Model the fold of this input.
Amino acid sequence: MKLYEQVASTVKDRIDLGYYHEGDKLPSVRGLSQEHGVSISTVQEAYGLLMDDGVIESRPKSGYYVLKHQEIPELPATSSPVPEPLVVAQWQKLKHIIEEYHNQVSTKLSLALPDTETATLKPLIRLITELSRTETSRILNYESAVGSAELCHQIARLAVDSGCRLHPDEIIITIGCQEALSCSLRAVTEPGDIVVVDSPSFFGSVQAIKINGVKALEIPTHPETGISLEALEMAFEQWPIRAVLLTPTNNNPLGYSMPDKHKIRLLALLKRYDIPLIEDDIYGDLNYTLPRPRTIKSFDTEGRVILCSSFSKSVAPGLRIGWVAPGRYREHIMMVKYLSSLSTPPLTQMALAEFIAQGYYEKHLRKMRINYQRDRDAVIGWLKRDMPEGTRISYPQGGYLLWVELPNEIDTNELDRRARLESISIAPGTLFSASGKYKNFMRISCVNSANPAIEKAITTLGRLCKEMQAQIPLAEPV
Amino acid sequence: MKLYEQVASTVKDRIDLGYYHEGDKLPSVRGLSQEHGVSISTVQEAYGLLMDDGVIESRPKSGYYVLKHQEIPELPATSSPVPEPLVVAQWQKLKHIIEEYHNQVSTKLSLALPDTETATLKPLIRLITELSRTETSRILNYESAVGSAELCHQIARLAVDSGCRLHPDEIIITIGCQEALSCSLRAVTEPGDIVVVDSPSFFGSVQAIKINGVKALEIPTHPETGISLEALEMAFEQWPIRAVLLTPTNNNPLGYSMPDKHKIRLLALLKRYDIPLIEDDIYGDLNYTLPRPRTIKSFDTEGRVILCSSFSKSVAPGLRIGWVAPGRYREHIMMVKYLSSLSTPPLTQMALAEFIAQGYYEKHLRKMRINYQRDRDAVIGWLKRDMPEGTRISYPQGGYLLWVELPNEIDTNELDRRARLESISIAPGTLFSASGKYKNFMRISCVNSANPAIEKAITTLGRLCKEMQAQIPLAEPV
Ligand SMILES: Cc1ncc(COP(=O)(O)O)c(C=O)c1O
Ligand SMILES: Cc1ncc(COP(=O)(O)O)c(C=O)c1O
Done:
C-alpha cells in the first residue's frame, strides 16, 4: 500500500467508525500532514482518492467534508403479488415502448440508459475506430459461436470481483443480457412450466417467460432484502417450479440487493428442491461501494446457477454485448444461442476486451459509481420535495433506477400519458408485473441529474400528480 | 441508355439468341465500330461492360470471346427423404462444427464464407471507421428495436430487384438471417407442430426447428427445380402442417432455384391449405445473372410469406445483419425479436445503410457474381477431374456452394475426418438432413478458387476418396 493510500484508509476507517458523520468537516490538509508526518501532497493525494471513491467532497474555499447522502426515504412496502402462476399479461404496453422508442420525448426517465457521454468512454470509441481499420478480416467474418477468446478471458478475470471463479471456457458471449436470459429460459423450461420471479420484475424477463409459453409465479419481495425466502419455500412446496429467475443485486426496478446470507439460503433451497437459478447480474458492477456484492453464482458449487449479465448498463447498450456462465447447462445453452443468432459481432467484442484489459473499464466504473450515487441522492431529494404526500421511494445501493410508489389514486399509465404531452416519459409500474399490478408505481432513471431538465421533469411530474389527485381533466390536445 | 450500353446490349442479345456460343470469338473492336458507326472507345466501353457482367472475356493478344462456363455436370437425383415428420436428429455433429470453428484447418471448404478480402468491401470498412468516430452517441445506445430507419429504407429499395414492393416499416432488422429464421419459427409454431422443409436443407434451419420442439417433414427435392409440389400437396393432405420453411433461390446446399411458375403454384397451395411460408432468400442477390430471380414474397398479396434474409453471404457475416419482412405476422415477430436480443447493434447497421445508399453494394455484387460463377466453374472442373467415377455435382446459378454426391460407399463423416488430418474440412451431408441421410454427400465452398490451395484440396479429397474405396485404413495419428 502506498503512503497516500494508507492515509486515505485511515480517514475512511474513522468515517466508518463514526468519528466523522455525513456532512462533517474533515481535518485540514496541513493538520493531517502534521498528524501523520507526511507531506502536504501526500495528504492531497489521499483526499483525492477519497473523492474519487465518493466518500468525501471538497467545498471551494472551505475544505473537505464527508459526502452527505440522502437520508433513506420511506420505502415501498414488501410487495404482495397474486399467489398463483400466471400467463403473463398482454404486452400492449411493451409494444408501445418498443415502437415509441425513438419518439419525440425529450426527457426519457422511462429508459434505463447509462451515461454514454462521459469522457471515460472515449478510449472505447478510439479502440473501435482503430480495430475497424486494423482487424478488417476478423471483423467481417463469423466470430466463434461462444465468443471472442479475449473477451471471455477478461470477463472471467473480472468475475473475481464478485467472488466468482470462472474459467474463460465457461463463458458464452451473447447479444446483450437479453439474449443470455432468453437462451437460458429456453434451455431450462418447456411450455406449460412455471418459473418463479421477484415482483416487481424486469419486463424483458417476464415477457420472455410469456413468449416461451411458460407461466410466471411472482413472489413477495422486500425493497431492501429482496425475494421472501419463506414465500419461496411455500411456492416450492405447492407448485412444480421449473426454474427461478432473479436480479438479486441492485435489482431493476426495486433496487434491493439480497444480503449474502439470503443468497446462501436461497441456494440451499434450490438444492433441496433441485431447481436451477437464472441470475441476472446486469447492475452488479454498478454497486456504489467496493467490494461489490457477491453473485449467487459465487456460492454455487454444483453448476446450478446460470449467471447472465452484460455491459449494457456498465458501459453502453449499443455494443449489444452480454454473456452467460451457464454452469451445467452449457451444452444446451450454447446450442440455443447458436440457433438464435449464430454468433455475436466481432468488432465490439474485440474493442471491449481491450477496453477492459487496458484498465479503462475499472476507471470508467469508478466514475460512474460516484455519479450514479449522486444522481440517486439528487433525484430522491427532488421527489421528496415535489411528489404528493405519501410517496415512497426505493433506496438502491447501485445502478441508477428508482422505484416510486405514488398515492393509490394515481394511475401511472395516465401519468405517463400526461407527462408525454410535456415531453417527459416514465415507465409505468404495470410493465413490471405479470398480472398488471403496480398501477400506482413508476420506475424512473436518475442518470445525469446535473442536467437541469431532470429536476424540471420531476417538478412537472409532481404537478401532474397533484392535478390528477384534484381530478383536473387532461386538456384535449389541440 | 448510353451509346456503349446500346452496343453492349446488341452483342448480348446475339449471344442469347445463339449467334455466338460459349468460347466463340467475337467481332474485333474495329469491326464492331464500323458496323455500328461508333467510335473505337465506345466499343471498348461496351466490351468492358460485358466483361464486368461476366458475359465475355478478353484473351491477351487474341481478342474477345464469349465466356465459357462448365458444361452442366451430372446432377444428383431428386432426393427421397423419410416420408414422415421427424424429431430432428441429435446435434452432436453440429456441436462439433460450433466448437471447432476456430480450429487449425487451413482450407475450410466446410464453411459458407463469402470473399471478404475483395477491394469492393474497402468502402464498408471506411464507413465503419468514420461512423465510429462521428456517431458516437448513437452507436453507444440502443437502436430502435425494429432497426435503423435508413437501413430499412435501403432494404426496401433493394427489394424491388426481386420483384417485391416493401415499405420500410414492413422490415425488422435482425442479428443475421439466423435470428430472422429463429424468430419467425418461434412466432408461427408451437412445440409438437410439424414444419415442412426441403431436403437436403440448411442445418441452421433444421436444428432451429428441433430446438423449438417442432418436427420436420422433409420433402423430395429436385436439384434444379426444388421441392416437389406433388409431394408437398400430399403432405398437406396427410399431416397437420403448421408452416413451410424453404430457401427457394440459390438454395443451400442443393443449389436449385424454383422456377417462377413453381413459386406461384406453391403460393396457391399454401393459400388453399392456409399455411404460412418462411422464405429464406440469403443467397438470392448472388444470382449470377440479372435480373435476379423473384422471391415468392413478391407474388404474395396476403402477407402469408415471411421473407428472411441477411447480408452475411452478399457482404460479410461478421456484420451480423439480417432482416425479416414478416407480412401479417409482424406484431408477433417483432415481439419475439425484441425478447430475443432487444435490438441490433447500430454501428454496422448505419455503415451498411451508407454502403448501399452510395452504390457500393451494387458494385460489390456485380464483382462477386462474376467471381463466384468462375469459382463454381473452376471447382466443378477439378471435381470432375479428381473425384471418383460416379460423382454427381449440383449446378447452382448463384452463390458459391456445391452439393456433391459421392459413390455410395464413401461416408463423408469419415472423409471429413481424414481430410482434417490434411488440414482440409468439408461439410458432411448428414448435417443437412433431419434423419441423418446423405451419408455419401458433402457440401463444399468454391470461394476464392484462384487460390492454388483450393485446387490442391480437391485433388487431396479425390485421393482420399479413392483410398477409402480401396479400403485403405487411416494411418493412426502419431
Ligand atoms: C435487469 C435487466 N436485465 C436484462 C436487461 C437487458 O439488457 P441488454 O441490453 O444487455 O440486453 C436489462 C435492460 O434493461 C435489465 O434491466
Ligand atoms: C440458407 C441459410 N440461411 C441462413 C443462414 C444464416 O445466416 P446469417 O449468418 O445471416 O445468420 C445461412 C448461413 O450459412 C444459410 O446458408
In short: Residues A 112, 176-178, 202, 204, 247, 252, 280, 282, 310, 312, 317, 322; B 342 surround pyridoxal-5'-phosphate (ligand 1) (CB under 6 Å). Chain A touches chain B through 63 residues (CB under 8 Å). The two ends of chain A are 66 Å apart (CA to CA).
